[in-house]
Each structure stands twice: as C-alpha cells, then as structure tokens.
Amino acid sequence: MKSKNILFTGPPGCGKSTLIEKIVNEIERPSTGFFTREMREKGHRVGFSINTLDGKQGVLAHQSIRSKYRVGKYGVNLKDIDHIAVPSMIPANAEMMVIIDEIGKMECFSPLFRETVIRILDSKHSVIGSIPLRGDLFIERIKKRKDIMLIQVSEKNRDTLVKELLERVMPLSEER
Q1: Which pick of 87, 135, 151, 163 has the fewest CB atoms within 10 Å?
Q2: Span 13-28, pLDDT tens digits
C-alpha cells in the first residue's frame, strides 16, 4: 500500500525543504501550504519566515520577537502561524495536495496548527512535508502514524530522492 502522506526528516540543513520544493515544482497537481525560510541580516540568521504557495508571507520566529514561546534565541509568532500558515494548509478542492514545511517545534506551539495538521493527515488529501528527527510527543506520534511514509534525508541521498519520490507521488496524482 502506498502512503498518502510523505514526511521527510533529517538534521537541519540536510535539504528537506529544497527536496520538497523540487517535488512540488515537478508535480502537475494543485497544491497548497507553506515553506519556512531563514531570514538573514548582514549574513546572520535572525529568524524564520512563513511563505505560502499562494504568495503570502509572515514571520514564524525572530530574535526580536518577545514571546513566551521561544526556541533558542527566537521568539515564536503564533499570530502569523494561525493567520498565514494554518489557512494555507486548508485545501480549496479535493485534488489539492498539502505542503507542510515543517511540522516543527516552533509551529507546534500553536494549538490550531496541531489540530489542523491532524485534520489534514486524517483527510483524503495527500501531504508532503518535513518533520524534525526528534520532537515532543505530538511530533513522535505523527511520525508513527500508519499513513505516513517517513524518509530520512541526508546530503548523500537528497538528490536521488527527487526522482524516486516523483514516481511515488505521480500515481497518487493520477488516481484522483
């Protein structure tokens, strides 16, 4: 049985987001969702942005944000998670695939985000996303779901995974 949900895991910087983006660009199927990107100033990372597939942007976390929700030096922006990332995960029609980059610690501070992730995974929509190697109980439960194909990404396999995954994802696109 093919898993309808594919999640990539691996250490930071191994290429999970780039891999997802390459797959999304190759698939001839409507998609919705978001990517996270580093925010840099003068060559230094200062935070992370939320970038939706339909062009909306927000701030996921930034070192200048004062928040009780923190990961390292970054304050997490629940408002943009709830008002930009979460709505981008809601498919407009039955054919849409959902991109979630990533189901990570920062995003999971939002109860609405966690609830929406579960609702999307439980739906008929296919999900392609990323998830950390290690996480809290919520993240670990997601990784153990029977409808998840969890793929470890490394610098060695990230380029060959695109072709391999396109072969898995394309039949899912054609079945609908």
Answers
A1: 163
A2: 888 988 888 888 888 7
Query: What is the per-residue DSSP string for 4-64?
Result: SEEEEE-STTSSHHHHHHHHHHH--S-EEEEEEEEEEETTEEEEEEEEETTS-EEEEEETT
pTM for this model (two decimals): 0.90
Amino acid at 116: T
Strand order in the sheet with 44-52: 70-71, 74-76, 57-62, 44-52, 31-41, 97-100, 127-130, 5-9, 148-152
HSE toward the beta carbon, residue 64, CA cutoff 13 A: 6
Tokens found for residue 173? 């696109």
3-state secondary structure at position 108: helix
